[in-house]
Protein backbone atom coordinates (compact mmCIF):
# COMPACT_ATOMS: atom_id res chain seq x y z
CA UNK A 1 0.00 0.00 0.00
CA UNK A 2 2.74 2.44 0.91
CA UNK A 3 4.54 1.69 -2.34
CA UNK A 4 1.40 2.56 -4.38
CA UNK A 5 1.14 5.92 -2.61
CA UNK A 6 4.76 6.73 -3.40
CA UNK A 7 4.29 5.82 -7.05
CA UNK A 8 1.07 7.82 -7.27
CA UNK A 9 2.78 10.79 -5.60
CA UNK A 10 5.72 10.53 -7.99
CA UNK A 11 3.41 10.40 -11.01
CA UNK A 12 1.40 13.38 -9.77
CA UNK A 13 4.56 15.33 -9.09
CA UNK A 14 6.03 14.50 -12.50
CA UNK A 15 2.74 15.32 -14.22
CA UNK A 16 2.50 18.61 -12.34
CA UNK A 17 6.01 19.54 -13.38
CA UNK A 18 5.32 18.63 -16.99
CA UNK A 19 2.07 20.60 -16.99
CA UNK A 20 3.85 23.55 -15.44
CA UNK A 21 6.67 23.34 -18.02
CA UNK A 22 4.16 22.99 -20.86
CA UNK A 23 2.27 26.05 -19.66
CA UNK A 24 5.51 28.01 -19.38
CA UNK A 25 6.63 26.87 -22.85
CA UNK A 26 3.25 27.84 -24.37
CA UNK A 27 3.43 31.26 -22.72
CA UNK A 28 7.00 31.74 -23.98
CA UNK A 29 6.00 30.59 -27.48
CA UNK A 30 3.10 33.06 -27.50
CA UNK A 31 5.32 35.88 -26.25
CA UNK A 32 7.87 35.02 -28.94
CA UNK A 33 5.15 34.97 -31.64
CA UNK A 34 3.82 38.32 -30.40
CA UNK A 35 7.31 39.77 -30.72
CA UNK A 36 8.37 38.18 -34.01
CA UNK A 37 8.00 39.70 -37.45
CA UNK A 38 8.36 37.90 -40.78
CA UNK A 39 9.81 39.94 -43.64
CA UNK A 40 9.50 38.10 -46.95
CA UNK A 41 11.96 39.21 -49.62
CA UNK A 42 12.47 37.98 -53.19
CA UNK A 43 15.11 35.52 -51.95
CA UNK A 44 13.28 34.23 -48.85
CA UNK A 45 12.14 34.98 -45.31
CA UNK A 46 13.85 37.19 -42.74
CA UNK A 47 12.85 36.79 -39.09
CA UNK A 48 12.97 39.87 -36.88
CA UNK A 49 12.76 39.89 -33.10
CA UNK A 50 10.75 42.91 -32.00
CA UNK A 51 11.99 44.87 -28.98
CA UNK A 52 9.02 46.34 -27.08
CA UNK A 53 11.32 46.61 -24.06
CA UNK A 54 13.23 49.32 -25.96
CA UNK A 55 10.54 50.98 -28.06
CA UNK A 56 6.95 49.90 -27.27
CA UNK A 57 5.30 52.62 -29.42
CA UNK A 58 7.48 51.90 -32.45
CA UNK A 59 6.98 48.15 -32.13
CA UNK A 60 3.22 48.69 -31.95
CA UNK A 61 3.38 50.88 -35.08
CA UNK A 62 5.40 48.28 -37.02
CA UNK A 63 3.01 45.51 -35.93
CA UNK A 64 -0.08 47.56 -36.82
CA UNK A 65 1.15 48.54 -40.28
CA UNK A 66 2.47 45.03 -40.98
CA UNK A 67 -0.81 43.40 -39.98
CA UNK A 68 -2.64 45.80 -42.33
CA UNK A 69 -0.36 44.80 -45.25
CA UNK A 70 0.98 48.38 -45.49
CA UNK A 71 4.54 47.26 -46.24
CA UNK A 72 3.65 44.69 -48.91
CA UNK A 73 5.27 45.56 -52.25
CA UNK A 74 6.95 48.72 -50.91
CA UNK A 75 10.50 49.37 -52.16
CA UNK A 76 13.84 49.49 -50.40
CA UNK A 77 14.34 52.98 -51.83
CA UNK A 78 17.62 53.83 -50.09
CA UNK A 79 20.30 51.15 -49.75
CA UNK A 80 23.90 52.06 -48.95
CA UNK A 81 26.67 49.44 -49.02
CA UNK A 82 28.14 48.84 -45.57
CA UNK A 83 25.48 51.02 -43.93
CA UNK A 84 21.80 50.06 -44.25
CA UNK A 85 18.73 49.21 -46.34
CA UNK A 86 15.79 51.59 -45.88
CA UNK A 87 12.18 50.92 -46.83
CA UNK A 88 8.65 51.51 -45.63
CA UNK A 89 7.76 54.40 -47.93
CA UNK A 90 4.99 53.43 -50.37
CA UNK A 91 5.98 56.31 -52.69
CA UNK A 92 9.59 55.13 -52.92
CA UNK A 93 10.79 58.74 -52.67
CA UNK A 94 11.88 58.74 -49.03
CA UNK A 95 9.26 61.37 -48.20
CA UNK A 96 6.16 59.19 -47.80
CA UNK A 97 4.61 57.43 -44.86
CA UNK A 98 1.40 56.09 -43.43
CA UNK A 99 -1.76 58.08 -42.60
CA UNK A 100 -1.10 57.50 -38.89
CA UNK A 101 0.41 60.27 -36.74
CA UNK A 102 4.17 60.32 -36.20
CA UNK A 103 5.64 58.35 -33.31
CA UNK A 104 7.62 60.13 -30.58
CA UNK A 105 11.28 59.17 -30.24
CA UNK A 106 12.19 56.20 -28.05
CA UNK A 107 15.97 56.41 -28.19
CA UNK A 108 17.92 53.79 -26.23
CA UNK A 109 21.11 54.69 -24.39
CA UNK A 110 24.09 53.00 -26.09
CA UNK A 111 24.71 50.95 -22.95
CA UNK A 112 21.32 49.28 -23.52
CA UNK A 113 21.19 48.90 -27.34
CA UNK A 114 23.46 49.79 -30.25
CA UNK A 115 23.20 49.94 -34.01
CA UNK A 116 24.98 46.74 -35.06
CA UNK A 117 24.64 44.36 -38.00
CA UNK A 118 20.99 43.28 -38.21
CA UNK A 119 19.64 46.05 -35.96
CA UNK A 120 16.29 47.45 -37.13
CA UNK A 121 15.77 51.16 -36.59
CA UNK A 122 13.11 53.70 -37.41
CA UNK A 123 13.90 56.37 -39.99
CA UNK A 124 12.97 59.95 -39.24
CA UNK A 125 13.40 63.51 -40.52
CA UNK A 126 15.33 66.18 -38.63
CA UNK A 127 12.69 66.25 -35.89
CA UNK A 128 13.42 63.37 -33.47
CA UNK A 129 9.65 62.82 -33.13
CA UNK A 130 8.99 62.41 -36.86
CA UNK A 131 9.18 58.61 -37.27
CA UNK A 132 6.15 57.17 -39.08
CA UNK A 133 6.50 54.06 -41.24
CA UNK A 134 10.00 54.09 -42.73
CA UNK A 135 12.57 51.77 -41.21
CA UNK A 136 16.05 50.50 -41.90
CA UNK A 137 18.13 47.37 -41.32
CA UNK A 138 21.82 47.76 -40.62
CA UNK A 139 24.45 45.99 -42.75
CA UNK A 140 27.09 46.69 -40.11
CA UNK A 141 27.77 48.68 -36.93
CA UNK A 142 27.25 52.42 -37.08
CA UNK A 143 28.00 54.02 -33.69
CA UNK A 144 27.00 57.54 -34.74
CA UNK A 145 23.34 56.40 -34.81
CA UNK A 146 23.45 55.12 -31.21
CA UNK A 147 21.11 57.14 -29.02
CA UNK A 148 19.98 59.21 -32.04
CA UNK A 149 17.48 56.85 -33.68
CA UNK A 150 14.95 54.38 -32.27
CA UNK A 151 15.85 50.68 -32.25
CA UNK A 152 12.74 48.52 -32.53
CA UNK A 153 14.12 45.09 -33.45
CA UNK A 154 16.91 42.88 -34.73
CA UNK A 155 17.24 40.27 -37.46
CA UNK A 156 17.54 36.81 -35.90
CA UNK A 157 17.63 34.82 -39.15
CA UNK A 158 17.90 35.59 -42.83
CA UNK A 159 20.46 38.39 -42.66
CA UNK A 160 22.14 36.85 -45.71
CA UNK A 161 18.91 37.69 -47.59
CA UNK A 162 19.04 41.31 -46.42
CA UNK A 163 22.62 41.38 -47.76
CA UNK A 164 21.21 40.61 -51.23
CA UNK A 165 18.95 43.69 -51.39
CA UNK A 166 19.86 45.79 -54.44
CA UNK A 167 22.16 48.70 -53.57
CA UNK A 168 21.70 52.30 -54.59
CA UNK A 169 24.27 54.60 -56.11
CA UNK A 170 26.02 57.69 -54.85
CA UNK A 171 26.10 58.96 -51.29
CA UNK A 172 22.29 59.17 -51.18
CA UNK A 173 21.94 55.45 -51.87
CA UNK A 174 18.83 56.08 -54.00
CA UNK A 175 17.95 52.83 -55.79
CA UNK A 176 16.76 52.61 -59.40
CA UNK A 177 14.33 49.70 -59.94
CA UNK A 178 14.56 48.76 -56.25
CA UNK A 179 13.95 45.41 -54.61
CA UNK A 180 10.62 45.30 -52.80
CA UNK A 181 9.17 43.79 -49.68
CA UNK A 182 7.07 40.86 -50.83
CA UNK A 183 5.17 40.66 -47.54
CA UNK A 184 5.70 41.69 -43.92
CA UNK A 185 3.55 40.31 -41.10
CA UNK A 186 3.66 39.70 -37.36
CA UNK A 187 4.30 35.97 -36.76
CA UNK A 188 0.84 35.50 -35.26
CA UNK A 189 -0.78 36.89 -38.43
CA UNK A 190 1.51 35.25 -41.00
Automatic annotation (TrEMBL):
Source taxon at top rank: Bacteria
Top-level class of the enzyme under EC nomenclature: isomerase
Catalytic reaction equation(s): [protein]-peptidylproline (omega=180) = [protein]-peptidylproline (omega=0)
Record keywords, A-Z: Isomerase, Rotamase
Entry keyword Isomerase: yes
Annotated Pfam families: Pro_isomerase
Keyword Isomerase belongs to the record: yes
SUPFAM superfamilies: Cyclophilin-like
InterPro entries with a match to the protein in the record: Cyclophilin-like_dom_sf, Cyclophilin-type_PPIase_CS, Cyclophilin-type_PPIase_dom, Cyclophilin_A-like
Stretches assigned to the PPIase cyclophilin-type domain: 44-189
EC number: 5.2.1.8
Region entry Disordered, spans: 167-190
GO MF, any single term: peptidyl-prolyl cis-trans isomerase activity
UniProt-listed PANTHER family: PEPTIDYL-PROLYL CIS-TRANS ISOMERASE-RELATED, PEPTIDYLPROLYL ISOMERASE DOMAIN AND WD REPEAT-CONTAINING PROTEIN 1
Family, similarity comment: Belongs to the cyclophilin-type PPIase family.
Its job: PPIases accelerate the folding of proteins. It catalyzes the cis-trans isomerization of proline imidic peptide bonds in oligopeptides.
Protein's name according to its UniProt entry: Peptidyl-prolyl cis-trans isomerase
Organism expressing this protein natively: Muricoccus vinaceus
Amino acid sequence: MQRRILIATSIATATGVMMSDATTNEAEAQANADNTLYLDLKDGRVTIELRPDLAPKHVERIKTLSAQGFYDNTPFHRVIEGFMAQGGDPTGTGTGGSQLPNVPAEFSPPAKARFLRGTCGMARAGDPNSANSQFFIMFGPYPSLDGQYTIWGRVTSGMELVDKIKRGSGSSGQVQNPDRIVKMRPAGAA
